[in-house]
Design a protein that fits this description.
alpha+beta, about 15% strand, two-stranded antiparallel ribbon, Rossmann fold, two-stranded parallel ribbon, about 100 residues
Length: about 100
């Protein structure tokens, strides 16, 4: 895509499950490799409604586990499904 004379690309990777690196499947490893080696900013999308089958705590733990792979990249955490559960409805420590 081009925007204001800048060219950029969006890569929508499959979800990455929170389990040891050696237990990750090929698709998960391709996603991690792409994010780690491409010159990019990373958007980490969290489902605050927890309808994805993973608690907010599990999603935060996964973020903490993969964050070192993106140490030199801009990271933006995106709160998804805010129409289902508002950020203000979350416990204070989760906001």
């Amino acid at each position: 895509m081009d925007y204001r004379y800048l060219r950029w690309q969006v890569v929508d990777t499959p979800g990455i499950l929170d389990h040891p690196l050696e237990d990750r499947n090929t698709i998960e490893m391709q996603a991690i490799t792409a994010l780690a080696h491409l010159r990019a900013a990373v958007l980490y999308v969290m489902d605050v409604s927890e309808q994805c089958g993973h608690s907010l705590e599990e999603q935060v733990e996964l973020f903490r586990n993969i964050k070192p792979l993106f140490a030199n990249k801009p990271l933006i955490i995106v709160a998804n499904k805010c129409d289902v559960k508002r950020i203000a409805e979350l416990p204070e420590e989760s906001q």
